[in-house]
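FYI - complex with copper (II) ion, inputs then prediction.
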Amino acid sequence: QFPRQCVTPEGLQSGTCCPSPTGLPNDECGSSTGRGQCVSITADRRPHGPQYPHDGRDDRERWPLRFFNRTCQCNGNFSGFNCGRCRHGLTGPNCDQRVTVVRRNVMQMSADEKRAFVDALGQAKRTVHPDLVICTRRYQEIFGPDGASVQFENITIYNYFVWTHYYSVSKTYMGQGQQSFGGVDFSHEGPGFVTWHRYHLLQLERDMQDMLGDPSFALPYWNFAIGGSECDICTDDLLGARSSFDTNGISSNSVFSQWRVICESVEEYETLGTICNSTETNPIRRNPAGNVARPMVQRLPDPQDVIDCLELNTFDTPPYYSTSSQSFRNTVEGYSAPQGNYDPVVRSLHNLAHLFLNGTGGQTHLSPNDPIFVLLHTFTDAIFDEWLQRHTAAGTVVYPEENAPIGHNREFNMVPFWPPVRNAEMFVAAPDNLGYTYEVQWPTRAYTISEIITIAIVAVVLIVAVVGGVIGCAVRARSYRSAEGLEPLLGEQFRRYSEDERHASQSVV
Ligand SMILES: O=C1C=c2cc(C(=O)O)[nH]c2=CC1=O
Ligand SMILES: [Cu+2]
C-alpha cells in the first residue's frame, strides 16, 4: 500500500511521499540524476456511477489523496515509488533494454519447473515485503491513540497480494452501530476488473522476480476452460490435492496445507471499522465441484465459452456494471452468459472458476489466500489480452472515462496500489507495453450447423466428382483394355497386311 519510508507521522502529516532511490539528501525521486521529480498527485474527478451514494465517507475515494497528495513522477523509462526502477518490460541501468517474460500453461511445465514455482510461492508467503507496509486502521485512526505511532504493519509479499484484493473489495464503514455499506467494489463488477487484476498480478510477478533475483520469472496460468468437474491442477505436485481426511481441506502432502489465511475477521472490520492486518489464522478451505447446493458451479467453464466471449465486439456497455449485456468485460468476469447476455442467475468464466473452488477461493474478501487465485487470474488476463489484440484494430476498444462504478473510471488511480497507477495504464496489449506475453493455444470455434451443411455438400460434390472421375477412367481403361485384347489379332492382321502390301509393290516393279 505505501512505502515504509513514507508512513512516519511527519510523512503522513506532510502528505508527501517522495523518497530518494539512493538515500542521498536532495535526491528525492532521483531528481539529481534526472530520474524523476516530486509532484502533486492528480486523481480522477469525473462522475462515477450511482452504485456508491456515500461520497466523503470512504478513504478510497479519489485514491490516494486521503493519505498523500504529492509523490514521484518518473521520467522516460524510469518507474517505481522512488523512480529507482524501470517501467514494466524494460531493464538495465538506464532502463533501455527490453525484457519480455512468457507466462505458460502450468500443466505444460516440467516436474522441476512445477516444483520451482511451488517453492517460489512458499518463499513469497514467508518473505516480508521489502518496501511496502499496510494500514490496519482507517485514516481517521491512523495516528493511533497516542497520536505518535502510526497504524501500519509489515506484511509478506504473498500476504500483501491477498491484502490489496481484500482492501479493494471491503465495505465502506458507516460508523459505530451502523451497517457497513457493501455496494462498493474497487476491483470487481466494472471495467476496472480486468485492469485492476492485471496490475495486481504484475506487482506480484515483479515482487517475486526481485525476491528470486530472477528477472525472467513469470507467473504461469491455469486454463480453467476445460469443462467437466475435475480440478486438474489440484495435485500434490501443483496446488494441492484434496485431503483424504477432510473433503474441504488440502492434502498434507502439499505445502499449501501448511498455509494460513489472512483477512478472515470480517465481522470485526465491519463493526469496529478496523482493517485486515497481517495476522494469519486458518488453513485454506477448498472443495472443488463440491457445492451440491449449487449444481451450476460444480462444473468448470467450457472451451466454447472462451471462444464466444472473445467474439464480443464491445469492451464494456452501460451501466458498466455486473448487469451489463454484450460487454466483453462483464462476460469474461462471469456475470453474463458467454454469448454476452446478462442473466442474474448465470456465473461463467472467471466467476464460475472462483465458485467451482467452493471454499476460500470463492469468497471475494478471502480468495487470493488460495494460490489457485493467481493461476485463475493469469488465464483471465490472457483472455483479456487476446481480446485486446483481436479487437484493437477494429477501433471498438474504448474504456469508459466516466459513470463507471467508483474506482472504475479510466483515469481513476487503482485502489490501493502504490505508486498511483490508473486503469488506463493497464488497458494496453501486454507484449508491447508491459513486458510479458502468454503461450496459449486458443480453442478454435466449432463449426455452425450451416457451416457443417455447406462443408458436407462440398464434400459430397467432391466425392461424386472423384468417384465419377474414377469410374470414367475405369470405363475408358476397360474399353482400352478390351481394345488391347484385340491387339494381337489386329497386330497379326496388320503384319499380314504389310506383307501383302510389300509383295504387291514388288510385283508391280
Ligand atoms: O474471489 C472472488 C469470488 C467471487 C464470487 C463471485 C460470484 O460471482 O459469486 N465472484 C467472485 C469474484 C472473486 O474475485
Ligand atoms: Cu478477484
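The radius of gyration is 33 Å. The chain has a mean pLDDT of 93.
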